[in-house]
Amino acid sequence: MTHRLHFTLNGQAISHPCDPDCRVIDLLREQMGLTGTKEGCGTGECGACTILVDGTPKLACLMVAAQLDGKSVETVESLEKSEEGRKILQAFVEHGAVQCGFCTPGMEMASLAMLRSGRPLDRMAIRSGLSGNLCRCTGYVKIVDAVAQACKGTDR
Amino acid sequence: MDTPIRLHHSLARNDGRPKACGAERYAADRYPDPYLWAGALRSGIPCGRILSVDTREAADLPGVFRILTASDVPGTNRQGIVHKDMPVLCEDVVRYCGDPIALVLAEDKAALQQALSRIRFEIEPLPAVCSLDEAMAQGAPLVHADRPDNVLAHALIETGDSAAAFERSDIVVEGSFSTPVQAHAFLETECGVARLEEDGGLFMEVSTQSPFRDRFEIAHALGLSYQNIRIVSPPLGGGFGGKDGATVQCLLGLAALNAGGRWVRMQWDREESFRAGYKRHACRMNYRLGATSDGELVALDARLWYDTGAYAHLGAEVMELGMEHAGGPYRIPNTRIEGWCVYTNEPVAGAMRAFGVCQATFGIESMMDMLAQRLRIDPLSLRIRNALHRGERNCAGVRLETSTGIQPCLETIQAHPLWKTRDEWKRQAPRFRKRGVGVVAVWNAAGYGGGVRDAAIAKIELCDDGTFLVHNAVSDMGQGNSCAFFQIAGHILNQDTSRIAVKQPDTRSAYPSGSSSAGRTTYTYGKALITACERMKARLINRAGLVLFLQDDDGIEMEPGRIVHRPSGREVSLQTLARMMQPEERVILSESLAPTCKDVPKTAKGFFIGFPHVIFGYGAHLVRLEIDERTGEAAIIDYLAVTDGGRVLNPAMFEQQIQGGVAQGLGYALMEDFRTRQGHVITEDFTTYLIPASLDTPDIASIAIEADEEESGPFGMKGIGEVAMNGPLPAVANAVADASGRRICEGPITAERILGLT
Fold first, then answer.
1. B12 at the A interface (CB within 8 A)?
2. Which residue, of B112, B157, B545, B575, has the fewest CB within 10 Å?
3. 3-state DSSP call for residue A132?
4. CB-CB neighbours of B628 under 10 Å
5. Predicted confidence (pLDDT) per residue in B197-226, tens digit
C-alpha cells in the first residue's frame, strides 16, 4: 500500500510515495539516503535516531512515515545550513565531543532543540536535555562542554 | 601560510567533522541497491540436541531467497580466534540460547522475519550448566565432550614462596569477590554487507576490529582461499572488544556464497546483539594478602574463575591477562595466582576493554583497603609505599624495564585538593547522606604479550595531487588511532591538515597489522608509520634535489605542499614531484615489532600465549560519592583519574579515552548487570540493561603524568585505551565502605546491595 506523503525535509518540500507504515528511520536512511540518522536500539531507548519534527525532538525509530505528513522534518544533514546548526557542529568538533560518532547526530539534534529553546542552560540543564541520548565512548563530559559552548551568547 | 600539523597538542580529530555532519559512512550505512537481507535463526535454549530443522514451509514464502543449514556450510564450519570450537551454523547440538541453526536470505526484512518464524525445528533439551557453580560441580554435564570438568584453561603463577611468606606475615586479610557479565553496548550493532565478485572473490564491508584476521576466520570456516577474501573496515560505531573476532563475518560470507552474486546485508538488532554478541566474563575470586605490621606487602594468594560461556573465544587469554594483573601495580615478592576458565551454557564471553583485568582489579584493590583498615594507615599511603618502580619485579615475576609511573600517579592524588580536603568534605554531608572517598591504583598491559608477534606494516603514499595518504590497517572503533596517524604523518612530513588523508583498513591496499585491541593500535602501527614517513621524507628530499640540480640534500626541507632549498629559495611542488615519480616509488612500507620480554621468568605454568607483557599503562583514581541512607543510592560527586600513558600525542583525545573508560567503568561499578535465567537472556534491551546516561555520569577530571615517557613508543606514548576502565568498580567499593562501613564484594554496587538487601 503506497501513499504519497507531503512534508518538508531539511527545508525542502517533499512529495514522496511510500508505505505509510514504514518506520521513519527506514524512510530516511534507506529510501532518502540520509544515513546520518543512526539506529542504535530500534526501541526508543538510545536516542541515536533523534530528529526534529516541527522543531520538537522525536525518535525516528518510533515513528511511521504517515506521521510526517504535513510536517517539517530536520535531520543532522541540515546542520550545516543554519547558523545554530553550524554552531553546534563546530562546538562538537572543536571540543572533541565526537569519538566513534554514532551517537553524535542524535546528540546534536537534541542539542539544537535545546539551543533554540533559548532557555538558560547550565551544565545540569544540558545533562538533562541530553539524558535521552546514550553515548558509550565519551563519558559525556566533552559533549556537555560542546553544548555549553554552542549555547554561549545565545539570547533568544 | 598553511600551518603544519604538530604532535602533543589538541588537534581536532580529522574524522570529527564528517562524523558530526552525518556524512561518515559506517558499515551500518551500506544499503547496496538491490540487496538481500540475511538473518540467523537462533536456538532459544541453552543446551540441546538438534533432532530436525524443517525449512520447507519458510522457503516457500514469497520474498524468501534461500535458507541454509549446517549441511550447506563448506569448510570446517568452525570459528574462533585461538580455539576453533564455535560453529557457524550448529550441526547436532546447541550450547547457548544464541547459537545459530539456520540462515535465511530474503528480499526484505519483513520476509526475513516471517521466514525466521516459520522454520520448524525440534531440539531435545539437555541438562545445561548455567553458572560457574553448576559447571564446576562434581559430575556436571559437559558443555564440550572433549573438555573434562568444563575447564577450558587452568594456569598458575608462582613467585617466591608464598606459603612461607604468609607464615611470617604479621597481618593476613582475606576476601571473596564476584563481578557480573558486562555487555559492550556499542551503539552500532554487529553488521556488514558482502557479495561474491565477478572473479569469484568474496568482498565484505563489515564493522570489525580485525579485518586481516577475519580473512583467516572466514577462509577456515567456509573452506575458501583467504587470498580471495577482501575485507573493508569503515570506522566502527564502537567496538570495545565486542567486534574483535567474527560476529556477522562467517554468516555473511556464507550468505554471499549462496546469493547468486547479489549483495547481502546483515545487521543484528539490539536484542540479537545482547543475545548473540560477545560479553565480558563474569568472574569469581578468592584473595589472601599478607603484610608486615608496618605495611609492607609480602604475600599474595589469588584464585580466579572466569566464565567463558558456551565457547572459548578469547576466554583463556582473558583469564591469563587477569592473572598477570591479579596483584595490582605493587611489589609483592611472594605470589601464588591460580586461574580457571570454565565453560557454561551461557552467552559467549570474549574480549572487552580491560580484558580480564578489571575483574582482578576489583579483588586486589578491595583487599588493599581492607589491609589499610587493619593496619590503621591511610589507603593511599599504603599504595604509595608498595608501588612498583622501574627495575622491580611485578606480581608475575617479570622485571619492569619500561616506564613505570604508578608512584607519580598516586602522589598526584595525594597532593590534590579532592584528597586533601576529604575529611572536611565528609563532615559536611547533608542530612540523611553519608559521604565517602575511595582511591585505587590501576595498571593495564599494552600489546599482545609473549608468544604472539605484535607487529604492524604501515603504508604511506604520495598521491598524484601531491597530498599524502596513510593506509591505516588497524580499525578505528572511535578511539582515535587514525587521527594519531594523521598527526604523526603531518608532523614528520611537515604538512597541514589539507594535505594528509587516512584511509581506513582495506585488506587489498593495506598490509596486515594485527587487531584493534590490547592498547596497541597507535603504539604498534604508529611506530611503523614513523619509519615510513621518515623514509618518505628522505626520498622526496632526494628527488627534489635531483629536480633542482643540487649536489646533495643539505638545506632541502619539506613544507606544506612543496619542497624548498633554503639557501637558494628554489622550490618544487609536491604535485610536480609526484607526477615525475613512478607510482611504486611513491609508496613506502615499513614494519614494526613491539618489544618482548628478553628475560622471561619461569613463573607461569599453563599459559598458552600472551605472557608476559613488558609495557603497562598506569593510573590512580579517586572518587568522592554520597550515599542516600534512605534509598541506598550512590551519587558520584567527583571523579579524578591520573594516568601514566607516557608522552601524550593529543591531549583532547587522551581525555576522551580516559573519560570514556571511566564512564564505562562507572556503568560496571553501579548498574550494568547482564542477566540470564536458566540460560535465557533477561536483559536484552536498554530498559533492562542500563548503561550510564548523561545524568548518571559526573564531570570526570583527567590528569596525565608525562614525566616518564615510554622510550620504546612512538614519540614517547603508550596505550591508555583500557587502563581507565579498571578504576571505577573498586574505587566505588572503597568509597562506599568509607561512607557506610559496609564493604560490597559483589558487583555491580547497586542501591539494594548498599542497603544490604541482597
1. yes
2. B575
3. coil
4. 16
5. 999 999 999 999 999 999 999 999 999 999
Rounded Cα distance between B311 and B227, Å, is: 27
Which residue type, as a one-letter code, is found at position B615?
Answer: I
What does the alpha-carbon distance between residue B229 and residue B251 come to, in Å, rounded to a whole number? 14
Instruction: Tell me phi and psi for residue B487, to 5 degrees.
Output: -70, -40
- Asked if B686 lies within 8 A of A43 by C-beta distance, the reply is yes
Greatest Cα-to-Cα distance within chain A, rounded to the nearest angstrom: 49
Tell me if the bond preceding B748 is cis, omega within 30° of 0: yes
Compute the residue count for chain B.
Answer: 758
Instruction: Give the DSSP H/E element, type plus range, for residue B383.
Output: helix B379-386
Rounded distance, CA B238 to CA A41, Å? 14
Mean pLDDT of all residues in B93-107 = 98
Distance from CA of A83 to the nearest CA of B (A): 14
Question: Stretch B688-703: mean pLDDT, rounded?
Answer: 98
B683 Cβ under 8 Å from any chain A Cβ: no
The helix (run of H) or strand (run of E) holding residue B288 is strand B282-291
Q: B539 at the A interface (CB within 8 A)?
A: no
Q: What's chain B's average pLDDT?
A: 97
| B722 touching A (Cβ < 8 Å) | no
CA end-to-end span of chain B, whole Å?
66
Distance from CA of A74 to the nearest CA of B (A): 13
Does the pTM exceed 0.90?
yes
Q: What is the pLDDT of residues B263-299, one digit of tens each?
A: 999 999 999 999 999 999 999 999 999 999 999 999 9
Q: In chain B, what residues touch A51 (CB-CB under 8 Å)?
A: none
Residue partners of B689: CB distance under 8 A and separation at least 6:
B183, B185, B274, B672, B673, B674, B683
B269 contact residues in A (CB cutoff 8 A):
42
